[in-house]
Amino acid sequence: MEPECRKCLSIKTWVATSTLNPTIPLSASIEILAKVSLTESPPWPNLMPAGLQDALLASVTYMTHPNLPKDPKWKLTRYASPIKTQTSSYIYLPSDHFFLRVIPTLTPELRSRRNQKLCVSLNWQLVAPNQQVPGVYDFRLHPGENVIAVDVIAELKEGDRKEYAPPQLQVDFERITFIIFLVDRS
């Protein structure tokens, strides 16, 4: 089971970064993606690549809102990077994908920290969480470029210290940025 999970994670990363991998046939990637539920958390901690056990954000799922007329059912999950605390990618979407739902998945590591904060922003304006569905952020995209940032800041673990940072910056920080270009195909 372990190689298939790692393969699924690599294919999801491939889809999220929009890079074409010629060694993986398209039919195989679609079949593997169909087997894996994109709303589930990644398999913690034993199947995650090295370096992700201390991650604060497990993944961020982007999807069209279920209440959209003629729901286009678009969904994409971006996972944390094992080597970077800040990642960014972009995608072009048609204009009928204008209402988006963002679902950040937090790790047990983040929940174990005494002080923590999660912020979701659209074009650098904070977005309030959905009142009916906890942990979900809904908002409308604008034509053109939309910058969606999911930030997590947390107090360091007990006994940890960053030698290079002053006392007021003794925190852990992670950011997943996703730039969506909403384009009209007419």
Structure description:
With 186 residues, the protein is α+β, with helices and mostly antiparallel strands. Helices cover 16% and strands 37% of the residues. It has helices at residues 2-17, 26-35, 108-111, and strands spanning 57-64, 75-79, 86-94, 99-106, 116-122, 125-126, 137-140, 144-155, 171-183. The chain has a 5-stranded mixed sheet with strand order 3-9-8-5-6, with no helix packed on it. Mean pLDDT is 77; it is low at 1-47.
Mean of the pLDDT scores?
A: 77
Termini gap: 45 Å
Largest sheet: 5 strands, mixed
Output the radius of gyration.
17 Å
Instruction: Provide the succession of SSEs.
Output: HHEEEEHEEEEE
Q: Which of globular, elongated, flat, extended, rod-shaped describes the shape?
A: elongated
Number of helical stretches of at least 4 residues: 3
Helix share bin = 10-25%
Q: Features of this protein?
A:
single chain; 186 residues; alpha+beta; Immunoglobulin-like; five-stranded mixed β-sheet; disordered N terminus
Topology diagram in text:
Blueprint: H1 2-17, H2 26-35, E1 57-64, E2 75-79, E3 86-94, E4 99-106, H3 108-111, E5 116-122, E6 125-126, E7 137-140, E8 144-155, E9 171-183
Parallel strand pairs: 3-9
Antiparallel strand pairs: 1-2, 1-4, 4-7, 5-6, 5-8, 8-9
Give a brief rundown of this model.
Helices cover 16% and strands 37% of the residues.
